[in-house]
Design goal:
Oligomer: single chain
Largest sheet: 8 strands, antiparallel
Order of helices and strands: HEEHHEEEEEEEEEEEEEHEHH
Low-confidence stretches: 53-57
Number of strands: 16
Number of helices: 6
């Protein structure tokens, strides 16, 4: 079976003193088994955090490629579910085309976690797009019960979604990561109004899914400030 194939293809260290005998050295086999180690998510996030270095008293981060930026603005005509519309974009992200309505604009809805979603890994809030597509969960959206001002997420990683098995336009981009700057009106008259975001800024990092939580921490610490300033100028 497997041992015969590995030895015949010379993929595992072994000794063959005669035509019918095979011997294996325990230390060599253990070393062979430990090759090509795969890092845990925590280790990978620590590696990303190590990219943050101090320079001139501030912080700079070796960033992944930002391939798309969007500004989402609260639609004051929203009914029960808050609606946000992309009002400015920089770069091009093909999956977004599938979310455009008849007016050519992309609209998303801010959805709270359903009571039936009992897993702790499910974020408290998510953005839902056209045809009930879950664009992304918003992780770290709340910290200690209040808006953190930032969030992160990533695309749905299945080829189809919903009971109707609709094609997922983000499937080919499932390894990308999303960062969000969450804006709110701290002068709003009620706590409920202050908890309602006035808008979002969305950043797409190509291939950034596996380290996206670390990139979000860098965003919070100002690691993306210079790049964000450039993107904001582009869309004015």
């Amino acid at each position: 079976g497997t041992i015969y194939r590995l030895t015949s293809e010379k993929k595992i260290p072994h000794y063959k003193p005669t035509a019918k005998l095979l011997y294996f050295d325990r230390n060599e086999i253990e070393a062979w088994m430990k090759q090509n180690r795969v890092s845990t998510r925590t280790e990978a996030e620590s590696t990303a955090a190590a990219y943050i270095v101090r320079k001139g008293g501030g912080r700079m981060m070796v960033q992944p490629e930002i391939i798309y930026y969007a500004r989402l603005t609260y639609d004051k005509g929203s009914k029960k579910t808050p609606k946000y519309v992309i009002t400015a974009e920089a770069g091009y992200y093909p999956p977004m085309d599938a979310l455009r309505g008849r007016d050519g604009r992309v609209s998303v809805y801010l959805m709270a976690k359903r009571e039936t979603q009992t897993k702790s890994s499910v974020p408290a809030m998510a953005l839902q797009a056209k045809n009930s597509l879950n664009l992304t969960g918003l992780k770290d959206y709340f910290v200690n019960g209040a808006l953190s001002g930032f969030a992160y997420g990533y695309p749905l990683d299945k080829p189809v979604y919903s009971s109707k098995e609709r094609p997922n336009p983000f499937f080919e981009c499932r390894e990308d990561g999303f960062l969000f700057v969450v804006h709110q009106d701290n002068e709003a008259p009620t706590p409920e109004a202050r908890q309602l975001p006035t808008g979002f800024e969305m950043i797409v990092l190509q291939g950034g899914k596996c380290l996206i939580s670390a990139y979000c921490k860098a965003l919070m610490n100002g690691g993306f400030d210079d790049r964000l300033a450039e993107l904001r100028k582009q869309i004015k």
